From TrEMBL:
Class in the EC hierarchy, top level: hydrolase
InterPro entries xrefs: BMP_1/tolloid-like, CUB_dom, EGF, EGF-like_Ca-bd_dom, EGF-type_Asp/Asn_hydroxyl_site, EGF_Ca-bd_CS, MetalloPept_cat_dom_sf, Peptidase_M12A
Record Gene3D superfamilies: Collagenase (Catalytic Domain) (3.40.390.10), Laminin (2.10.25.10), Spermadhesin, CUB domain (2.60.120.290)
Gene Ontology biological process terms, A to Z: proteolysis
Name of protein: Metalloendopeptidase
Length: 891
């Protein structure tokens, strides 16, 4: 037998298979969703259970360590232990792999007998990574009768820690079923992984983990009858925020006092010691059981020789209801997988009196719709996805300040932006989730907790002027013209700064034009009337610092707070460009440290009316101000609604035939949506090529661009040769097609979302063309017929026919700047594959050359224009033909 690499130390096995966990706050909502999907994958196929940590002493923490992707093997005990999910590790299969270490698995290839199954190519291993290929000692590994598993999710791939992507570090030594086995899959648990984990944690031999929203199960052999000494466990787990309704549909078990021998037992929780809801035997059907949370434990045992039919049961997950707790989780049905259609869930959350309810979204993804928060308590930050449409009419989350649907609305949310933290004004909060029958997304995950408003106390947090409440805390602030004293509670008069409402004016640093004092913090808040924008112009500028602006600096923001939209942080001696506010207010902050002082700055400002400054002109995406009016525009991947203001998610397949332009990932320059597939089919004038130049690239990084990426194909679709697959943040070199067609495909997965890419394209003249039986066209320039050819052109076409055939070319239109020797603009033809071959002629003027036939299988056409006079250009047709006895000579 070939042993597997599982721990042999019992203290490393988690008691009862229960693994408490925490997730560090630096992970995004989509990353948290992947972690939960991976944990549910282990739960689905084994009897291991992951629970959010409360008071448990030993638990795992999802975090980011310098090791990248790594974890302690098994339970360490005595406190928290890290499972590191570093850069590029936040993929489902990789997290499942790292959780395998947590559960108690070593890497498969480190087993003591691994040399019987794989070969290690040590010369190809990266320097410093050799320790990852060491064998375990026999006393560290227990096989439990399982064979070596090439398909294990714990097995390295062929090139793991390789010095080069095409160099192998580990190879199977023999064939399995006639083929050399693949290794290193990161898709799902193998049969061997499941069997090994079930043996390691002594899982019941029958029963299963049930995670669907509805289901049924029954005792073994039902309805024929169960055998003696059976033991089965069913673990029902639904989405947090849902409850389980369990109904027994048949019951025929041996009846005994207190159901001592044969029984089915239901517990309200995740394990065998959860509160007992009932132990049943005999033939009486139990009453309906409703869980208090999202898990139920159902256990069946038989010990008598009497055989009954057994039992059968059905369950259903129901969302919403009364939630009376200090804290907890609420998620959309089926989260983190896509929610179902036509769902409506209403939660009424209640915390103890004298507290408020705080609500914080970790992840949000509903069908993409317009977001219109209705309270100052709600803000939007990147990371939310729900179906998006006008006023969130289809799929949405609605939050109200109280315990009913008629209480004040805090906000209705949908789309891709995660709502900001919300807080009720009482101890009750009402939350509603609705989905329609169309597009489904991943939904949302939120946590709720009891929250106290420290600023509502009589002492107002001991703040002298302003108390700003935050979820879980508060901070003091001062009015414009004042600054916080050293105690961070009281305020003192500032030597600079202030609140300014005039339409124009000037401001400067203290002591201008002399040196400013050290340790100063000045804040000016400029406020103009609604529908005005403020323009700031610097007349003089000189501060300490360089490009980093680490010491003394001036910071300009659109808004009134220190976290408003940043225009720039400036320092040094270079005067900043003019800055125009996004709205009707502008915040200028100056800070100096205690070292070098310079002159500072002097600036003036003025205000001007702007229709876009009021509610973005009613535009959902971009409002473009024009003289006396404005227009609304949508970002890539969206189209303007019929109301000319809102944007709706559009198809992501683009057909582009313009000569030049810009393409970008959906929602650029903001983060692209998850699980998006977009294509661009570019075509240009026959005889021309397409050139792509990248302006910005910001996609998820991976060595092979296996996750989020842009792929470019040299032709009309993705079946043509690839010109490159791109990801990460490094701008690729320009990409040029070989014909007048190019196909681009952008894919994003469900984990990391970044800004994406922006690229410019344009038609390029010249290239290699194939002459065939069908007649093809060739034009002097891409905008032939619309504009004259551009100056400064130098184009070279090589037209080739099949071997045994020649090339025939006939000019349909010919209008080139005329000159006696064709010295300015001209067309040259060569009989061969380059300009060193015999020249057939140089042509210009308005008379078309005679028909041209090659002596061989190729013709070169060269077109040159200088930078002065231009004309219409030329249009030629070419085809392959049988060789002719005569050639066209110079005209």
């Amino acid at each position: 037998r070939r042993r597997r690499a599982a721990t042999s130390r019992p203290e490393r096995v988690w008691p009862n298979g229960i693994i408490p966990y925490m997730i560090s706050g630096n992970f995004s909502g989509s990353q948290r969703a992947i972690f939960r999907q991976a944990m549910r994958h282990w739960e689905k196929h084994t009897c291991v259970t992951f629970i959010e940590r409360t008071t448990e002493e030993s638990y795992i923490v999802f975090t980011y360590r310098p090791c990248g992707c790594c974890s302690y093997v098994g339970r360490r005990g005595g406190g928290p232990q890290a499972i590191s999910i570093g850069k590029n590790c936040d993929k489902f299969g990789i997290v499942v792999h790292e959780l395998g270490h947590v559960i108690g698995f070593w890497h498969e290839h480190t087993r003591p007998d691994r040399d019987e199954h794989v070969s290690i190519v040590r010369d190809n291993i990266q320097a410093g990574q050799e320790y990852n290929f060491l064998k375990m000692e026999p006393d560290e590994v227990d096989s439990l009768g399982e064979v070596y598993d090439f398909d294990s999710i714990m097995h390295y791939a062929r090139n793991t820690f390789s010095r080069g992507i095409f160099l192998d570090t580990i190879l199977p030594r023999y064939d399995v079923n006639g083929v050399r086995p693949a290794i290193g899959q990161r898709t799902k648990l193998s049969k061997g992984d499941i069997s090994q984990a079930c043996k390691l944690y002594k899982c019941a031999r029958c029963g299963e983990s049930l995670q669907e929203s509805t289901g049924n199960f029954s005792s073994p052999g039902f309805p024929i009858g169960y055998s003696a000494y059976s033991h089965c466990v069913w673990r029902i787990s639904v989405t947090p925020g849902e409850k389980i309704v369990l109904n027994f549909t048949s019951m025929d078990l041996f009846r005994s006092h207190l159901c001592w021998y044969d029984y089915v037992e239901v517990r309200d929780g995740f394990w065998r010691k959860a509160p007992l809801r009932g132990r049943f035997c005999g033939d009486a059907l139990p009453d309906t059981i409703v869980s208090t949370d999202s898990r139920l434990w159902v256990e069946f045992r038989s010990s008598s020789s009497w055989v009954g039919k057994g039992f059968s049961a059905v369950y259903e997950a129901v969302c919403g209801g009364e939630v009376e707790r200090d804290h907890g989780q609420i998620q959309s049905p089926n989260y983190p997988d896509d929610y179902q259609s036509n769902k409506m869930c209403v939660w009424r959350i209640t915390v103890p009196e004298s507290f408020n309810v705080g609500l914080s979204f970790q992840s949000f993804e509903l069908l993409f719709t317009a977001i219109k928060p209705l309270s100052s308590l709600s803000t939007t930050i990147p990371g939310l996805q729900i179906e998006k449409h006008d006023s969130c009419a289809y799929d949405y989350v609605e939050v109200r300040d109280g315990g009913s649907g008629s209480d004040p609305l805090l906000g209705r949310f949908c789309g891709y932006d995660k709502p900001g933290d919300l807080k009720s004004s009482s101890n009750k909060l009402w939350l509603k989730f609705v989905s329609d029958g169309s597009v489904n997304k991943a939904g949302f995950a939120a946590s709720f907790f009891k929250e106290m408003d420290e600023c509502s106390r009589p002492d107002r947090g001991h703040c002298e002027q302003r108390c700003l409440n935050t979820l879980g805390s508060y901070r003091c602030a001062c009015d414009p013209g004042y600054e916080l004293a050293a105690d961070r509670r009281s305020c003192q008069t500032a030597a600079c700064g202030g609140f300014i409402t005039s339409l124009n004016g000037s401001l400067n640093t203290p002591d201008w034009p002399g040196d400013y004092p050290p340790n100063k913090n000045c804040v000016w808040q400029l406020v103009a009337p609604t529908q005005y924008r403020i323009t700031l112009l610097f007349d003089g500028f000189e501060t300490e610092g360089n490009d980093v602006c680490k010491y003394d600096f001036v910071e300009v923001r659109s808004g009134m707070s220190s976290d408003s939209q940043l225009h720039g942080r400036f320092c040094g001696a270079e005067r900043p460009d003019a800055i125009t506010s996004l709205h009707n207010n502008l915040r200028i902050e100056f800070k100096s440290d205690n070292t070098v002082s310079k002159k500072g700055f002097k600036a003036h400002f003025f205000s001007d009316i702007d229709e876009c400054s009021k509610a973005n002109g009613g535009c959902q995406h971009e409002c473009v101000n024009t003289f006396g009016s404005y227009t609304c525009q949508c970002r890539s991947g969206f189209m303007l609604h019929d109301n000319k203001q809102d944007c709706k998610e559009a198809g992501c397949d683009h057909v582009v035939s313009s000569v030049s332009g810009t393409i970008s990932s959906p929602n650029w320059p903001d983060r692209y949506p998850s699980k998006k597939a977009c294509t661009w089919s570019l075509s240009t004038t026959p005889g021309h090529r397409i050139k792509i130049v990248f302006n910005e690239v910001d996609m998820e990084t991976h060595l092979e661009c296996a996750y989020d990426h842009l792929e470019i194909f040299d032709g009309k679709d993705d079946r043509t040769p690839t010109l490159g697959r791109f990801c990460g943040t490094k701008k690729p070199a320009a990409v040029v097609s070989s014909s007048n067609k190019m196909f681009l495909r952008f894919l994003s997965d469900n984990s990391v979302q970044k800004r994406g890419f922006e690229a410019s394209y344009r038609a390029e003249c010249g290239g290699n063309l194939k002459a065939g039986v069908e007649t093809k066209d060739l034009y002097s320039h891409a905008q032939f017929g619309d504009n004259n050819y551009p100056g400064g052109s130098d184009c070279l076409w090589v037209i080739t026919a099949e071997k045994g055939y020649g090339v025939e070319m006939i000019f349909q239109v010919f209008e080139i700047e005329e000159e006696a020797d064709c010295g300015y603009d001209y067309v040259e033809l060569y009989d061969g594959t380059d300009v060193k071959c015999p020249r057939l002629g140089r042509y210009c003027g308005s008379g078309a050359p005679e028909d041209v036939y090659s002596a061989g299988d190729a013709i070169v056409l060269k077109f040159h224009s200088d930078d002065s006079i231009s004309r219409k250009g030329f249009h030629a047709r070419y085809t392959s033909t049988k060789f002719q006895d005569t050639l066209h000579a110079s005209k």
